[in-house]
Amino acid sequence: MSSLKEKDRPIVQLLLNTGTCPRCIFRFCCVGSQAPYKRPYKDLMKELKEFLKKNPEEDGIVCFEVPDPPCKRIRLENTEEGPDDLNQNGVLEQIPLVNEDNTALESSAVKVCSVCLGILQEFCEVDFVKKVCQKVKSADYQFTSFVFSVSLPPQLSVREVSVYNILGYLNAEKLGLSLAKDDIVQLKEAYKWIIHPQLSEELGVPADGKSLFEVSVVFAHPETDEECHFLARACPDCFKPAKNKQSVFTRMAVIKALEKIKEEDFCKHFSCPPSSPKNYCVALEIQCSNSAVFVAGKYNKYSRNLPQTPWIIDGERKLESSVEELISEHLMAEFKADSFNFSSSGREDVDVRTLGNGRPFAIELVNPRRIHFTTEEMKGLQQTINNSSDKIQVRDLQLVTRSAIGHMKEGEEGKTKTYSALVWTDKAIQKEDIAFLDDLKELNLDQKTPLRVLHRRPLAVRQRIIHTMESEYIDEHHFRLRLKTQAGTYIKEFVHGDFGRTKPNIGSLLNRTADILELDVESVDVDWPPALDN
Question: What is the pLDDT of residues 79-94, one digit of tens each?
Answer without folding.
Answer: 333 333 433 333 333 3
